[in-house]
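Reviewer comment 2.1 asked that we show a complete input and output for one of the modelled complexes. We chose the zinc ion case, as it is the one discussed in the main text.
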Amino acid sequence: MFSIHKKKKCVLILLDGLGDRSYTALGNRTPLQAAHTPVLDRLTQNGASGLFHPTRMGQALPSEMAHFALFGYSMKEFPGRGALEALGAGLPIRTEDVAVLARFAKLFTDADGCLRLSDEKVTEEDERLNPLSASVGDYEYRGIRIRFYRTKGPYGILILRGNVSPRITDTDPILLNHRLSAVKPWHKEPPESPAADTAAALKSYLVWAYERLGKHPLNRERIEKGLEPINGIVTQRAGQLRSVPFFRERYGFSGISIASGIIYRGICSYLGLDFHKVKDTDNCGEDIAARLEKAVDFLGRYDFIHVHSERPDQAAHTKDPEAKIRVIEELDAGIGRAIEPLLESPDVVIAVTADHSTPSKGPLVHSGEPVPLIFCGPGIRRDRVEQFNEVDTAGGALGCVRGPEFMDLVLNYMDRAKLQGLMDTPYDQRYWPGDYEPFRIGK
Ligand SMILES: [Zn+2]
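Response of the prediction step:
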């Protein structure tokens, strides 16, 4: 007979975009190496360290793909950021719809007749953007209906309905003062395919929106005042929902994410995790402390708790390594204020890592270096690494953990790893014991 053990739980502290590069101004250290992080260092000393990359070393990933892979899902199961954000924003998306990320932009036509992003971002208030959204909210082209939903600031989502396909290219060049790319079906999509029709419908909508926005009274007023018009919409990362096994089905336990971004609500909704929405304040230390306190409350109801902070990524995007150091130190202090109940619990496994690296200098949005990873908790090997950063943890006992191995380690440390080869259910599930059918005498 097995003795009844109390079930172990896992709290994952995810510091978004934490990984970085080394900078001469920091003594050839990364912001994380340069930051004073006594709490994260203590966790490192109490556990096993390594590096983590969600896919392949060198691949630069956005948060949604990195989280998707971290949660042990393959890129074949990935529905595209547009679809995940639509779910996160609670938009009326159906499985056959295509959702595309869309944002307002200031555009102009260059001497060759090509559309180009201006070198000015859209930072206008909601009340200025609302009338513009309303004027380009609904469009139809050859049986494809396109609706624009603004979600936050200049950002929104287009939902395309009809015989549509997500296999179309982006128009958003991301870099200011660059030409928009043409919207086209992907390579090898035939001319009469849904992808070709979707690209044609989206192009028609974007041209219509450009013309219509350019003539909008609000933009005429802006031009009279010498301001650049908010006259276009640019798009990227089309997606379509598909059906994937829920998190509980894959791992045999329940999970919740405590995060502020709607993309995490979207991922949770898609993967069958619960979601607890929090707000970011000016004090990211207090924010992470409050999220960890919430995680302690959730331990009675959930087995896996994802505690997220967006702030290291946001700080890195300001391209100021010093700003990232300040955020890391605030987070470290905040974790220190709330970590004790988790550290003292004999049943809690704590993991700390990031989803990707965000370089706080240079042209890249995100970069492909792995990020530090630690696990600490009951029975977890203690290596000799003393400091939590990209370089020291590389010498730790975990080595470099990739993609689905992260959740395998979580299952292992939670004592739910399956002895490979056992088949207690018709599915070769990743956890053990499986939710098997009992053996009955007779039928
Ligand atoms: Zn980022």
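The pocket of zinc ion is lined by residues 17, 313, 317, 358, 366 (CB under 6 Å). We note this here for comparison with the apo prediction described in Section 3.2.
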